[in-house]
Design a protein that fits this description.
The complex is a heterodimer of chains A (about 120) and B (about 110).
Chain A: E1 4-7, E2 10-13, E3 18-25, E4 31-37, E5 44-50, E6 53-57, E7 64-70, E8 73-79, E9 87-94, E10 107-108, E11 112-116
Parallel strand pairs in A: 2-11
Antiparallel strand pairs in A: 1-3, 3-8, 4-5, 4-9, 5-6, 7-8, 9-10, 9-11
Chain B: E1 3-5, E2 10-14, E3 19-21, E4 24-26, E5 32-38, E6 44-50, E7 56-58, E8 64-68, E9 73-78, E10 87-94, E11 103-104, E12 108-113
Parallel strand pairs in B: 2-12
Antiparallel strand pairs in B: 1-4, 3-9, 5-6, 5-10, 7-8, 8-9, 10-11, 10-12
Classes of the chains: A mainly beta (about 120), B mainly beta (about 110).
Chain lengths: ~120, ~110
């Protein structure tokens, strides 16, 4: 089973709202990722967790706050977002590579389509 | 610096024709290479990957790719296109020794006409 699940599928929020995106995998992977994808563009890496510890933060604004409560679950907490944050947010998982960066095959979830009004 | 280049942002083929999507990379260390497909409003699905060993890699849906170190290429092919192949295709590279995550190409949109 190579399934990564994400909820919700769609999310519409105002700029003052607080919401969370959820990602789950049961493949025993110990590296999990958040990506942001704009239309007609490749995914952009936001965060990497390796063994439940944040290993990469690609200078993401603090209005995005990741959390990895356990090895199967990854959350992305959203607060005070801007309209330009509207995008498809993808979660992925893999086994960690050397240096904790996570370089084995990544399996992606279906994404959460976020719209910020 | 490591990078991935996909030649052709848009490729159009007729149903039954050969599909060729080009990917070149630059790297100072041996790469791991991947092709992903993305259908509209969906996540990325792994088509195939090369890590070590046989340089001709077969993937799902009849796709295959060949790692050519001398040409720093990993082109994706399919002998006969099907309408259902219309999607966005991303080539990606990772470099295990550096501990970095995936580096994606800009993507190629494949259109298939009947």
């Amino acid at each position: 089973d190579t399934e990564v699940t994400q909820t919700p599928k769609h999310l519409v929020m105002g700029m003052t709202n607080k919401k969370s995106l959820k990602c789950e995998q049961h493949m025993g992977h110990r590296a999990m990722y958040w990506y942001k994808q704009k239309a007609k563009k490749p995914p952009e890496l936001m965060f990497v967790y390796s063994y439940e510890k944040l290993s990469i933060n690609e200078s993401v604004p603090s209005r995005f706050s990741p959390e990895c409560p356990n090895s199967s679950l990854l959350n992305l907490h959203l607060h005070a977002l801007q309209p330009e944050d509207s995008a498809l947010y993808l979660c992925a998982s893999s086994q960690p590579g050397l240096a904790g960066g996570g370089t084995d095959t990544q399996y992606f979830g279906p994404g959460t389509r976020l719209t910020v009004l | 610096a490591q990078s991935v280049t996909q030649l052709g942002s848009h490729v159009s083929v007729s149903e039954g024709a050969l599909v060729l999507l080009r990917c070149n990379y630059s790297s100072s260390v041996p790469p791991y290479l991947f092709w992903y497909v993305q259908y509209p409003n969906q996540g990325l699905q792994l088509l195939l990957k090369y890590t070590t060993g046989a340089t001709l890699v077969k993937g799902i849906n009849g796709f295959e790719a060949e790692f050519k170190k001398s040409e720093t290429s990993f082109h994706l092919t399919k002998p006969s296109a099907h309408m259902s192949d219309a999607a966005e295709y991303f080539c990606a590279v990772s470099f295990n020794q550096a501990g970095t995550a995936l580096i994606f190409g800009k993507g190629t949109t494949l259109s298939v006409s009947s």
